[in-house]
Design goal:
By secondary structure, this protein is an alpha/beta fold. It contains eleven helices and 14 strands. It folds into two domains: 149 residues, NIF3 (NGG1p interacting factor 3)-like (Udp-n-acetylmuramoylalanyl-d-glutamate--2,6- Diaminopimelate Ligase, Chain: A, domain 1, 3-Layer(aba) Sandwich); 121 residues, Udp-n-acetylmuramoylalanyl-d-glutamate--2,6- Diaminopimelate Ligase, Chain: A, domain 1 (3-Layer(aba) Sandwich), CATH 3.40.1390. It is elongated and about 55 Å long. The N terminus is likely disordered. It binds zinc ion. The site of zinc ion (ZN) has 7 residues, from loops.
């Protein structure tokens, strides 16, 4: 996600050379069975994610052209130098990310971190595919759908289950099997923290049970007012800015910021894994930890 702030994050957070690789490169004897072409891979991603339906903050699809033949695919959240280096170590032919290299508002110079990342990709002839809003939005494999799945939240069926600009936000309830909502906002926060394995920032207006939950991954704090208008008792996203604390208290709607990276690390492996299985490619998700 989303809005110009997210694009700014995309530009700055990725320079994390301190980024810690959580999972290693491909093991020996990986499962690559087939070879496809860059063109076929792009076609498969486009077919699944329909990028033409979105007004986005950067180009979706192939951002950096590498070799024609593709056998090994690596996915990650952000095309950071750490991820590119890990992909090189994994002998990847293509990398699939949510946060690519190019965003509206950049000055276009190939210097500093941009030069370093591009140099690595070009020197190793690796294709870079990036899908931003289309990856947030996919109804089963996207960031919002996959976060909901992990949190045990189910969006209302049809248009009732979406809100906000470009209908990117999801709204619904706790899945039946998970119980009848949450006792209160702190109970929801504890649940989210346990699932994501990191602390959340909670603004609790102290209004009792949480039944209707809205969520939108990444830097979607700008969607909070739309979530309030859609009748949410609580809104879950990655980041908080100063105004949202006041909106939460004044509207009586709980706000949870659970990490931009932490909320957006499920869509890329779901989509890349799906397409890799379709085409018989090997796939590995490499999570470069990010405290943001
Ligand atoms: Zn994002």
């Amino acid at each position: 996600m989303k809005e110009p702030r997210c694009a700014a994050r995309g530009r700055h957070c990725p320079s994390s050379p301190a980024g810690r690789r959580v999972r290693g490169p491909l093991p020996e004897g990986d499962n690559a069975r087939m070879t496809t072409t860059r063109h076929e891979l792009l076609h498969a991603f486009d077919l699944l994610l329909a990028p033409g339906r979105f007004k986005d903050y950067g180009p979706n699809g192939l951002q950096v052209e590498g070799r024609t033949a593709v056998r090994r695919l690596v996915s990650g959240v952000t095309a950071s130098r750490a991820l590119i280096e890990a992909a090189i170590a994994a002998q990847a032919d293509a990398v699939f990310v949510h946060h690519g290299l190019f965003w509206r508002g950049q000055d276009g110079r190939v210097t500093g971190w941009m030069k370093q990342r591009l140099a690595l990709l070009l020197a190793h002839d690796i294709n870079l595919f990036a899908y931003h809003l289309p990856l947030d939005a996919h109804p089963e494999l996207g960031n919002n759908a996959q976060l909901g799945l992990r949190l045990g939240l189910v969006a209302e069926p049809g248009p009732e289950g979406r809100f906000g600009e470009q209908e990117l936000g999801f709204i619904g309830r706790r899945a039946e099997a998970e119980g009848d909502g949450f006792a209160d906002a702190p109970a929801l926060a504890r649940h989210v923290e346990a699932v994501l394995g990191r602390p959340a920032t909670l603004v609790d207006p102290g209004r009792g049970p949480i039944r209707r939950v809205a969520w939108c991954t990444g830097g979607a704090q700008g969607y909070f007012e739309a979530a309030i208008a859609a009748g949410a008792d609580a809104f879950i996203t990655g980041e908080i800015s100063e105004p949202q604390a006041h909106y939460a208290r004044e509207a009586g709607v709980a706000f949870l910021a659970c990490g931009h990276h932490a909320t957006e690390r499920y869509g890329a492996p779901a989509v890349a894994g799906h397409v890799a299985a379709q085409l018989g490619l090997s796939h590995e998700f490499i999570d470069i930890d990010n405290p943001a």
